[in-house]
């Protein structure tokens, strides 16, 4: 598993609704418990993806906007770089 799943942050930064497994920092990054499933539970992951796809477009857009704002606020590269330097 990846401790800090960059692909999740990248997807969120593009304004995408996301579903993830609870590995590494994924649950912390996504911060939407209903879209985080236990690892190695393919049926649960499939169900969560199906639920996301079946949700109304407006709801998916709200989630996507929330994801975008979270990563641009919490995981800005300039801020993270400065934290390392400090």
Automatic annotation (TrEMBL):
<dbReference type="GO" id="GO:0016757">
    <property type="term" value="F:glycosyltransferase activity"/>
</dbReference>
<keyword id="KW-0328">Glycosyltransferase</keyword>
<feature type="domain" description="Glycosyl transferase family 1">
    <location>
        <begin position="2"/>
        <end position="66"/>
    </location>
</feature>
<dbReference type="Pfam" id="PF00534">
    <property type="entry name" value="Glycos_transf_1"/>
</dbReference>
<keyword id="KW-0808">Transferase</keyword>
<protein>
    <submittedName>
        <fullName>Glycosyltransferase</fullName>
        <ecNumber>2.4.-.-</ecNumber>
    </submittedName>
</protein>
<dbReference type="InterPro" id="IPR001296">
    <property type="entry name" value="Glyco_trans_1"/>
</dbReference>
């Amino acid at each position: 598993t990846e401790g800090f799943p960059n692909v999740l942050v990248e997807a969120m930064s593009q304004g995408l609704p996301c579903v993830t497994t609870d590995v590494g920092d994924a649950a912390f990054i996504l911060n939407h418990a209903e879209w985080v499933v236990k690892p190695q539970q393919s049926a649960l992951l499939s169900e969560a993806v199906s639920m996301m796809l079946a949700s109304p477009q407006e709801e998916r857009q709200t989630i996507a906007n929330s994801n975008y704002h979270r990563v641009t606020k919490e995981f800005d590269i300039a801020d993270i770089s400065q934290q390392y330097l400090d």
